[in-house]
Each structure stands twice: as structure tokens, then as C-alpha cells.
């Protein structure tokens, strides 16, 4: 028996941001947590206007950090409590949505401590389950990658370690996908986040938790990225829109089928480069490793056929060529060899313990992961 679900109601299309007004009509006090760029591009003001037109009071916190720490959440909570909203809106990239999910947890359940509900290892379960939370969350992504607008997870750092909060309680009630927002992304953000979508699709299609329903979402996302990401990076409006929707489709796929070792490896190498870029670098090596599973090899070949090829081996070549076309650098061009080798053992140990390894089609050893990091570094 397997499950597939989606909690989030998705609102799609040019100008769909105005749906904020319809939602806000049912609430009295609405707090918007926003990135600075969404204020600069005028979307924060637009959202606040919609809330006021709906007759609700509105307050905003802007300038949320790109790599959120739990300390950032601790800082935000008193400001959120002082306004006491009955609706939260996250307006920005994946980090803004993740931080707002965490704010929701500790605003609605102040008795909880971070240590009780967060975890970073598949071998240690959190002490407490996140209880029923009351404040609804509207997620409005401005980048096209993380899938946080539909996912049940929030990733936050504490003392340099990335922790996960995972619960359907933090999956947003609404996701508004207005393509005007991702059109503001700089080229490198469009590329890196789009590559993350590709890896979400490929990993979600090949875990040990897939269903025909998650497969459908994953395949559509993969095909969209291969077809449209190069144009999207250049700023083509239609391409930006297509990749934006693909990001959410991939989010729906991994919300259900989860992700695999490529994400475990890039999470633990997060100090080196942006998440999507690391995923793109590690992906061909992870596919090659996972091909020892008949199941994974068959699924990779299915992906290859969907994009006009035949075998898992060809998919590796397609991914490598795609990376090259988009200017993805070799790992040895972005991090110094001595520093990388110094950190290698620790990264491999931590990636081995990462919760997503449990969903990878092949259980690796610490040594396997170390070898994959090494191969990726020397581009072997
Ligand atoms: Fe990702």
C-alpha cells in the first residue's frame, strides 16, 4: 500500500497574485513575510494592497535571509506574536517559504522547542511530533525550484548543520503561481533553481516510494526543464512560466515519492555552492551508481525514452551535455582541493546519515558516498 496526497490548493496564471484578496476576506490580520527583492519589484506592495482591499489588517516583515538559521526564526517570533496574525503569507524564494513554515510551527505551538521537532539524521527520530497547527499559510514563490510551496518540509540551519522540519501541518494551504514573479529572477538563479527542478524530478521518479501519480508529476517536470530551461535562463517569458509550474509539479512528486542520494550529497556540501548547482554536478555520478539496481536502471531508461533517447547510460550523457550547455562548472573549479579533501570524510559521514538516503534505490556505504564525492570533484 502506498499513498499520494496534496494538501495545497494551487492558483495558477498571469496576475493570479490578486487571489490574495479572495483568501484574505476570511481573515482579520494578515502577516506577510517577504524577501527584499519582492518589495523592490513591487509585489510586496501589491499583496498588501489586496489584503487591505479585502478589509483585513496587514503587516509585513521584509528582507528575510537567503540561508535561514533557526536564530532568524527566534528573532521573528516576537514580531509575529505582537501582531498576532490569523493568516501568514510567504512571498519570496524557497528560503522565505521555509522560514515562514518554521515561524508557523513556533507561533502556533510555542511550547515546542526546535530540538524536539527538528532532525538531521535518519538514525534519530525527533522527540515530538508537530501537533495540529491553526494559522493557514499562503506560499507565493518568486523562484522556480525548491517546491516548498507544496512540500511538507522546511530546511533550517542551526550551528552550521541543516535540520529538517517535516509535517503535513506545515505544507501550505495555498500556493499562488503567478509567472510575473519568477520573471524577476537573475539568470544564475533561474539556472540553478531550474537545475534543482530537474534533479527533483529525476530523483522523485527513481526512489523506492514512487507511485504512478508521483511519476506523472515527475516526468512532466523533467520534460519541461529539458525543453524550456535554456530559454528560461535567457529570460524568455513563456519559458519562465513553464519552468515555474514544473517546479511545483516536481515539488508534488517529491512531497510524495521523496528524494535520494543526490540531495543528501548536496545538502552536506552546501558550504561549497548553490544547492541546484551542486545537485546538477552530482547527478550523473549518482545515476551511474544507482544503475546497479535493476529497478533504477529501468526507471532511468524510461526517463531517457521520454526525452527522445533509450537507455540509462544515454540519460547520463544527456544530463552531462545539459549541464555543459548551461555552463555548470566542474566542482574543482568552485572549491579548493585541499579544503575539499579536508572535509570529505565528514561530508560522506553526514550524507550517509541523511534522512533521504532511506529513499534512494540503492543503499550506499559511507565509502561509496566518499568515492562519489571524489569522482565528482575530479570530474572522472
Ligand atoms: Fe532540491
Give your account of this protein's structure.
- By secondary structure, this protein is an alpha/beta fold.
- The chain has 2 domains: 9-177, Rossmann fold (3-Layer(aba) Sandwich); 185-377, Dehydroquinate synthase-like, alpha domain (Up-down Bundle), CATH 1.20.1090.10.
- The chain is built from 16 helices and 8 strands.
- Strand 6 and strand 7 form a beta hairpin.
- Bound molecules: fe (ii) ion.
- Fe (ii) ion binds next to helix 7 and helix 11.
- Helix content estimate: 40-55%
Q: What characteristic shape results from the CA principal axes?
A: globular
CATH topology descriptor of the largest domain: Dehydroquinate synthase-like, alpha domain
Can you count the beta strands?
A: 8
Q: What is the CATH H-level superfamily of the largest domain?
A: Dehydroquinate synthase-like - alpha domain
What number of domains?
Answer: 2
Across the major sheet, the strand order is: 1-8-5-4-2-3
User: Which value, in Å, is the CA radius of gyration?
Assistant: 20 Å
CATH C-level name of the largest domain? Mainly Alpha
Q: For the report, how would you describe the main beta sheet?
A: 6 strands, parallel
The total count of helices amounts to 16
Named once each, the bound ligands are: fe (ii) ion
Strand content: 5-15%
Which regions are unreliable across 5 or more consecutive residues at pLDDT < 50?
Answer: none
Q: Which second-level CATH architecture of the largest domain applies?
A: Up-down Bundle
- Give the helix/strand class: alpha/beta
Pattern of helices and strands: EHEHHEHEHHEEEEHHHHHHHHHH
Amino acid at each position: 500500500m502506498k499513498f499520494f496526497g496534496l494538501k495545497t490548493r494551487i492558483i495558477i496564471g498571469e496576475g493570479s497574485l490578486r487571489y490574495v484578496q479572495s483568501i484574505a476576506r476570511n481573515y482579520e490580520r494578515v502577516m506577510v513575510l517577504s524577501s527584499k527583492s519582492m518589495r523592490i519589484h513591487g509585489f510586496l506592495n501589491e499583496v498588501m494592497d489586496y489584503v487591505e482591499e479585502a478589509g483585513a489588517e496587514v503587516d509585513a516583515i521584509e528582507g528575510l535571509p537567503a540561508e535561514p538559521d533557526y536564530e532568524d526564526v527566534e528573532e521573528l517570533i516576537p514580531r509575529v506574536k505582537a501582531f498576532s496574525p490569523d493568516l501568514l503569507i510567504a512571498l519570496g524564494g524557497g528560503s522565505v517559504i521555509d522560514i515562514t513554515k518554521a515561524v508557523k510551527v513556533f507561533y502556533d505551538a510555542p511550547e515546542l522547542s526546535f530540538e524536539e521537532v527538528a532532525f538531521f539524521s535518519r538514525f534519530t527520530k525527533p522527540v515530538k511530533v508537530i501537533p495540529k497547527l491553526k494559522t493557514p499559510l499562503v506560499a507565493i514563490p518568486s523562484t522556480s525550484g525548491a517546491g516548498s510551496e507544496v512540500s511538507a518540509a522546511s530546511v533550517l540551519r542551526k550551528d552550521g548543520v541543516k535540520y529538517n522540519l517535516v509535517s503535513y501541518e506545515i505544507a501550505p494551504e495555498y500556493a499562488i503561481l503567478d509567472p510575473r514573479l519568477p520573471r524577476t529572477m537573475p539568470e544564475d538563479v533561474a539556472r540553478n533553481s531550474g537545475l534543482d527542478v530537474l534533479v527533483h524530478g529525476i530523483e522523485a521518479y527513481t526512489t523506492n516510494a514512487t507511485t504512478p501519480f508521483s511519476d506523472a508529476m515527475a516526468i512532466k517536470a523533467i520534460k519541461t526543464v529539458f525543453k524550456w530551461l535554456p530559454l528560461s535562463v535567457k529570460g524568455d517569458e513563456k519559458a519562465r512560466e513553464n519552468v515555474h509550474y514544473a517546479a511545483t509539479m516536481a515539488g508534488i512528486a517529491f512531497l510524495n515519492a521523496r528524494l535520494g542520494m543526490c540531495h543528501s550529497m548536496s545538502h552536506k556540501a552546501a558550504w561549497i555552492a548553490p544547492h541546484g548547482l551542486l545537485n546538477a554536478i552530482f547527478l550523473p555520478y549518482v545515476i551511474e551508481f544507482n544503475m546497479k539496481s535493476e529497478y533504477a536502471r529501468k526507471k532511468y531508461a524510461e526517463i531517457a525514452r521520454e526525452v527522445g533517447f533509450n537507455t540509462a547510460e544515454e540519460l547520463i550523457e544527456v544530463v552531462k551535455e545539459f549541464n555543459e550547455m548551461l555552463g555548470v562548472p566542474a566542482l574543482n573549479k568552485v572549491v579548493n582541493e585541499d579544503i575539499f579533501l579536508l572535509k570529505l570524510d565528514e561530508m560522506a559521514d553526514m550524507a550517509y546519515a541523511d534522512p533521504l538516503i532511506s529513499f534512494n534505490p540503492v543503499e550506499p556505504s559511507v565509502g561509496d558516498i566518499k568515492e562519489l564525492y571524489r569522482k565528482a570533484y575530479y570530474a572522472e
